[in-house]
């Protein structure tokens, strides 16, 4: 009996040691991440649904039909939470990663969306909205699509959105790219993320895309091989955007100007109070308009399209020259994008009748890129006839997507 009990004790001890050893090995081999926090499947789309949706969309926007033949698979869309840094503080940010359903090696396309003021309209909060689906389905063309919320939305809705503030915007986008780079097939079995990146965006997203392009080419070329970029209707030169507003008696979307002033104030880009820029009737409202609850139209309704009524007359007369507004000018210049000698193919697109962002912004940026040494063989420009800012969104996006996809196919 003593022998039997001793044997049982030894057997139990051996099993216990085996379990502990296995647990330690499992813990030691668990993947640790620098950026990735979590992922959750939020929606799936079948190829038949995608082609049907494109058929319907092409009735209103014929250009959509141009991508139908390039659809190759079902897709899965995930909300991904990741770490980024804002003003020196680590926060959780979020966005969507959309992957083809079929195993394979896929390039990465990062899409930067246009101006949003409502948290419930952020990509990861509303992945099934029609406009977001039009971005997500790009994955069915054989891309891994990254679709960031931007700081201030989704998982980071507790902080103000840094509208047209370059450093936190670009930092969050670069960190999302690093997130995708580090998870790859470990979180998406059978899917490999190639070191082959394409960038696409419109409006605020056009500005963010071009800023991201410059940052990646200038500072992260060894980590991210960018093969092509398409930017639509971006306010690349922000002083030019404001100057265009001030040169008219009316401006159709005063919320844009209020959004810039609110973000630049919160993120300490300039020292002037809102009352230096807006008339008293509106200056006191600005900080209460951007809480993630009001749409652009609702914000516009609390302002006025009349520039003399909206803005302080000293700002209108002294914006370009007065020392009173020197920090404003510096901030706008610092968050603009200057041209450089690029080796990455880029397409600029803009609607011919855009009154929100003057097409001269694109015309100037294109010319400046050529003057900086970028070859006209790789730097292109398309002006979409007879469309304004809203009407140009889908045509510019389709032109950009076809430009990028043709680059991919020509490799």
SSE ordering = HEHEEEHEHEHEHHHHHHHHEHEH
Let me know the largest β-sheet: 9 strands, mixed
The appropriate CATH architecture of the largest domain is 3-Layer(aba) Sandwich
**Overall form:** globular
Number of domains: 2
Helix content: 40-55%
Distance between the termini: 76 Å
Q: What oligomeric state do these chains adopt?
A: single chain
Q: For this structure, what is the CATH class of the largest domain?
A: Alpha Beta
Q: What proportion strand?
A: 15-25%
CATH topology of the largest domain: Rossmann fold
User: Mind telling me the CATH superfamily name of the largest domain?
Assistant: Alpha/Beta hydrolase fold, catalytic domain
The chain-level mean pLDDT equals: 92
The radius of gyration is 25 Å
Question: Layout of SSEs?
Answer:
Layout: H1 2-29, E1 36-45, H2 47-60, E2 75-86, E3 89-100, E4 104-112, H3 130-136, E5 144-148, H4 166-187, E6 191-202, H5 204-219, E7 226-232, H6 238-246, H7 254-266, H8 280-283, H9 286-289, H10 296-301, H11 307-310, H12 313-318, H13 326-334, E8 346-351, H14 360-371, E9 379-384, H15 393-410
Parallel strand pairs: 4-5, 4-6, 6-7, 7-8, 8-9
Antiparallel strand pairs: 1-2, 2-3, 3-5
Helix pairs in contact: 4-5
Describe this structure in words.
The structure is a single chain. The chain has helices at 2-29, 47-60, 130-136, 166-187, 204-219, 238-246, 254-266, 280-283, 286-289, 296-301, 307-310, 313-318, 326-334, 360-371, 393-410, and strands at 36-45, 75-86, 89-100, 104-112, 144-148, 191-202, 226-232, 346-351, 379-384. Helix 4 (166-187) crosses helix 5. Mean pLDDT is 92; it is low at 1-29. Helix content is 42%, strand content 19%. It is of the alpha/beta class and 411 residues long. Strand 2 and strand 3 (89-100) form a beta hairpin. It has a nine-stranded mixed beta sheet with strand order 1-2-3-5-4-6-7-8-9, with helices on both faces. The chain is globular, with a radius of gyration of 25 Å.
């Amino acid at each position: 009996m003593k022998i039997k009990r001793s044997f049982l004790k030894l057997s139990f001890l051996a099993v216990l040691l085996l379990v502990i050893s296995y647990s330690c090995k499992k813990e030691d081999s668990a993947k640790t991440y620098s950026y990735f926090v979590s992922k959750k499947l939020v929606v799936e789309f079948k190829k038949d649904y995608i082609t049907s949706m494109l058929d319907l969309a092409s009735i209103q926007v014929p250009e959509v039909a141009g991508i139908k033949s390039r659809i190759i698979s079902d897709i899965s869309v995930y909300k991904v939470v990741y770490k980024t840094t804002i003003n020196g503080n680590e926060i959780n940010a979020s966005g969507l990663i959309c992957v083809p359903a079929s195993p394979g090696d896929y390039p990465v396309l990062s899409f930067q969306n246009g101006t949003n003021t409502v948290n419930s309209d952020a990509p990861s909060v509303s992945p099934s909205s029609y406009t977001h689906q039009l971005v997500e389905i790009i994955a069915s063309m054989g891309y891994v699509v990254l679709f960031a919320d931007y700081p201030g939305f989704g998982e980071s809705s507790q902080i103000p959105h840094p509208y047209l503030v370059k450093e936190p915007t670009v930092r969050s986008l670069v960190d999302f790219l690093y997130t995708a780079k580090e998870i790859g097939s470990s979180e998406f079995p059978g899917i490999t993320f190639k070191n082959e990146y394409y960038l696409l965006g419109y409006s605020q997203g056009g500005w963010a895309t071009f800023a991201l392009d410059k940052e990646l080419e200038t500072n992260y070329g060894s980590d991210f091989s960018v093969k092509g970029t398409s930017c639509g209707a971006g306010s690349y030169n922000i002083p030019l955007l404001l100057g265009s507003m001030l040169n008219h008696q009316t401006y159709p979307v005063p919320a844009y100007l209020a959004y810039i002033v609110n973000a630049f104030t919160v993120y300490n880009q300039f020292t002037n109070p809102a009352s230096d820029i807006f008339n008293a009737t509106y200056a006191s409202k600005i900080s209460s308009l951007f809480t993630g609850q009001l749409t652009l139209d609702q914000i516009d309704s609390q302002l006025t399209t009349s520039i003399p009524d909206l803005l302080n007359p000293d700002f209108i007369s002294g914006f370009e020259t007065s020392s009173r507004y020197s920090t404003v000018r510096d901030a706008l210049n610092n968050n603009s994008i200057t041209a450089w000698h690029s080796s990455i193919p880029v397409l600029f697109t803009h609607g011919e009748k855009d009154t929100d962002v003057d097409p001269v912004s694109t015309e100037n940026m294109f010319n400046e890129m050529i003057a900086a040494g970028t070859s006209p063989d790789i730097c292109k420009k398309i002006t979409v006839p007879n469309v304004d800012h809203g009407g140009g969104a889908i045509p510019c996006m389709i032109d950009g997507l076809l430009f990028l996809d043709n680059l991919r196919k020509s490799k």
